[in-house]
Every structure is written in structure tokens, then in C-alpha cells.
Q: What sequence folds into this?
């Protein structure tokens, strides 16, 4: 969710300032691409295990972030479109995989409660980067804010990916 929020916070500025795209139709098409990619990935990966989906999501976050920041620095609509697609695939896999885990571990009599808590966490994950980028870009610049948040999200993704690969099946190795 932080990746989508980062994208949502940065994309309008990248489109307007670096790409000089002021058309609301183009901006809408970019967000339609993002939403369509998320929806398609969710629909097409139902047979994928939650672990596999989440690991792929984490791995795809890195090129997604790199492409978005690259689009900002080189001013390329093509790179922005590639970033959007990659972000959508990563977000769709992460959302689907994590929601599957939440549904699997939630007790039957408390599933609605647990899923509601999951969605609250998702929305907070969506809001915090937007607020943070806004505050940091006001205090410094949009470039600094985007680099700081890209690096932060990438660091969390790498750490989660390392733990996800190291501790397969949810079991920590003995003696650690």
C-alpha cells in the first residue's frame, strides 16, 4: 500500500512538472492503467500461493520504485507508463497475497473483525507516504522527498524479502 501511495503522491507532480503533461485525460489514463493492472493481477493469480505472490510483490517493488524515480529525473512518459504497470503488478500481488493470509489465519468467528483491521492498516499505509512526501517536499524539495521515500520503501521491501526467503513456511530455523 505504501508503494501505491508513493506512486499516487508523486505521479501528478511528475506528470505536470517533469513530463509537462497537463492533460487530465492523460493523468486519468495513467491511474486507470494502475488500477487495471492491480485488478488483472488479482484476478489472474488466484492459484498462486500467498507466499509466492507476496515475495514477487516485494521483488517487483524495487524496479517499480526505480522506474518511477527515473521517470521523474529523465522526464520520460514511456518510463512512467512502465513504472505504472510494474507498480500495479507489485501492488496487486502484495494485496492479494496478504489478504489471503489474513483470511487464512483469522478465526472464523472473528474474520470480519480481523479483515477490517487489515484494511485499516492498508489505508494507513496508503496515507502516511502521501502526508510524508507532502511535508518533506515542503521542507526540502520534491526531489529529496521522492528519493527519501523511495529509499525507505525499498529498504523495507528488501528486509521483508530477505526474511520471506529465509523463513519459509512461517517457521524460523531452530537456534535463531
A:
Amino acid at each position: 500500500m505504501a508503494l501505491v501511495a508513493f506512486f499516487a503522491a508523486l505521479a501528478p507532480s511528475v506528470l505536470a512538472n517533469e513530463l509537462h503533461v497537463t492533460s487530465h485525460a492523460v493523468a486519468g489514463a495513467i491511474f486507470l492503467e494502475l488500477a487495471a493492472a492491480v485488478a488483472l493481477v488479482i484476478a489472474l493469480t488466484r492459484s498462486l500461493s500467498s507466499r509466492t505472490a507476496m515475495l514477487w510483490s516485494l521483488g517487483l517493488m524495487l524496479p517499480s520504485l526505480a522506474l518511477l524515480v527515473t521517470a521523474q529525473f529523465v522526464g520520460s512518459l514511456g518510463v512512467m507508463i512502465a513504472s505504472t504497470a510494474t507498480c500495479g503488478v507489485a501492488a496487486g500481488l502484495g494485496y492479494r497475497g496478504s489478504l489471503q493470509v489474513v483470511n487464512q489465519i483469522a478465526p472464523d468467528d472473528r474474520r470480519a473483525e480481523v479483515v477490517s483491521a487489515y484494511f485499516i492498516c492498508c489505508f494507513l499505509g496508503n496515507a502516511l507516504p502521501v502526508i510524508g512526501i507532502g511535508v518533506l517536499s515542503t521542507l526540502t524539495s520534491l526531489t529529496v522527498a521522492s528519493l527519501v521515500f523511495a529509499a525507505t520503501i525499498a529498504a523495507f521491501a528488501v528486509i521483508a524479502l530477505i526474511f520471506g526467503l529465509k523463513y519459509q513456511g512461517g517457521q524460523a530455523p531452530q537456534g535463531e
Observations:
- Residues 172-176 have pLDDT under 50 and may be disordered.
- DSSP finds six helices and no strands in the chain.
